[in-house]
Every structure is written in structure tokens, then in C-alpha cells.
Design brief:
Blueprint (H helix, E strand, L loop, with lengths): L2 E2 L2 H11 L5 E4 L9 H12 L17 H11 L6 H22 L6 H9 L3 E5 L4 H11 L7 E3 L12 H10 L6 E5 L2 H9 L4 E5 L2 H10 L3 E3 L4 H17 L1
Helix pairs in contact: 2-4, 3-4, 4-6
Length: about 240
């Protein structure tokens, strides 16, 4: 069930946006794959030898791995050396990939939803995760051909909440930001999407997290991927009918 900040305003906004919409851009972790448990366990494994046991994964949702490592080390008053950060980030990514490869926690109906949307819109993937993690998802679910652009955290200098990854995605697709929809599950990602000027930002979360995403600027929040075809494709058909 989708949640909206102001139902009447959002309904009008949806119709106006979808008169020109051309692309849908997805975050990966927490949207197309339910990867939180794998990433949390990987972070806990690299921090445990340093005596860091109280790691709050939710606080860092949407962050790049190296940035999480640096922040946690500083908070724990540990020595922060670039080589240590790189080593720990690489170990975390390796552990997470192993767990993801074993579980492949793809969201329900993920590929079917992507296929349905690809009939109407250009699709793109913009993840803060490593390039190897993104490629693992694409290979495991055989969906690489559905995306016109794929960018990872390794491909950008400034991670979310900076808008760089989304700005570059719009450029790669040849689509104006105002003509795009971004689907995100984290506050950092919502801020990045808004900063890039996306025409609409759809949050992805359960009821307990929806308020945070709306406060960060999401136009509406959905709880399952299966809601997207009914929302986006139905509005697409309506908008195109209005043009005729």
C-alpha cells in the first residue's frame, strides 16, 4: 500500500509528471534485493575483531562501504588510516558478496516488475554498492539487458547523498531529470534523488520507515515492488490517452 504526504496534491503531481516521464531509476540494496541482513552481518564480522559490537546498520543505509568504515572507526576513537579503511572495506564487500551469492535475496516479483516497466520506460540502476556486487545481482537474475545504464559506488567520486550518481545516470540515458522517476529506500538516496532534480522520487519502505522517507522529500512511499506496474504503467497509459 502506497503512502503519500498529501493525497490530492500527489495525485495531481503524478499525472503531471507522467505526461513527460521517460525513465525509471532504481537503487539496488533494499529495493531490488533484500540485502540488509547480508550487509549487516558482513559489517559486524569486520568490526568485531576491533571490539566494536554495537553497529547500527540502519543508520548507514545507502552509504558507500568505505564511508561507513571510516565513520564507525572515528566514532569508536580508533586510528583512521586510509590503508586500513581500504582493507576493511574490501573485506566487508567480499564477505557480503559471498553471503549474497549464497542467498540471492532478490525482492519478490523483481524481474517481472522490471520487465513490465521496460516496455514503457528506459530503466537504470544506480547503487552505492560495489561494482562486483552490482554485477553479481545482474548475473544471478539475468536482467542486465533491461537496464540502459548501470552505475555503482565505485563509479562516482561523491557518494549519496550527493546527487552525482543520479545526475550521471540521467546523462547516460539522455533523459532530463524532470522526466525521470527514482525509487529509493534510504534517506541518503532520497536526498541524492531530490538533489539531482528527479521529476518524482518514490520511497520504498514499510510503515515504520515511511515517515523518514517522506520527511526527506519522497513524493510517495510504496511497500512492495509489485505496486510499481499498477502505479507507473497505468499512469503512463492514462497520460498517453490524454495526449491523443
Amino acid at each position: 500500500m502506497s503512502l503519500q504526504a498529501d493525497e490530492s496534491t500527489i495525485e495531481m503531481s503524478v499525472r503531471n509528471v507522467f505526461r513527460t516521464i521517460r525513465a525509471v531509476i532504481f537503487d539496488l540494496d533494499g529495493v531490488l534485493i533484500d540485502s540488509a541482513a547480508c550487509h549487516r552481518a558482513a559489517f559486524e564480522e569486520i568490526f568485531r575483531p576491533l571490539g566494536i559490537d554495537a553497529f547500527d546498520y540502519a543508520r548507514y543505509a545507502g552509504w558507500r562501504t568505505a564511508d561507513v568504515v571510516e565513520s564507525v572507526l572515528r566514532a569508536a576513537a580508533n586510528t583512521v588510516q586510509p590503508e586500513l579503511i581500504r582493507e576493511m572495506a574490501a573485506n566487508k564487500s567480499r564477505i557480503a558478496r559471498e553471503k549474497l551469492a549464497a542467498a540471492n535475496p532478490v525482492a519478490p516479483d523483481c524481474v517481472a516488475v522490471l520487465e513490465a516497466l521496460s516496455r514503457h520506460y528506459a530503466l537504470a540502476l544506480a547503487s552505492s554498492g560495489s561494482r562486483q556486487s552490482v554485477e553479481l545481482f545482474l548475473a544471478a537474475n539475468r536482467c542486465a539487458s533491461l537496464f540502459g545504464s548501470v552505475l555503482s559506488g565505485d563509479d562516482v567520486e561523491h557518494a549519496k547523498p550527493a546527487p552525482e550518481i543520479y545526475t550521471r545516470t540521467f546523462q547516460a540515458l539522455g533523459v532530463a531529470p524532470a522526466d525521470g522517476v527514482i525509487v529509493e529506500d534510504a534517506v541518503a538516496g532520497i536526498l541524492a534523488a531530490k538533489g539531482a532534480g528527479a521529476g518524482m522520487v518514490i520511497g520504498f519502505a514499510d510503515n515504520s520507515q515511511a515517515g523518514q522517507l517522506l520527511s526527506a522529500g519522497a513524493d510517495l512511499v510504496i511497500q512492495t515492488l509489485s505496486e510499481l506496474p499498477g502505479l507507473l504503467c497505468a499512469t503512463y497509459e492514462s497520460a498517453n490517452a490524454d495526449r491523443n
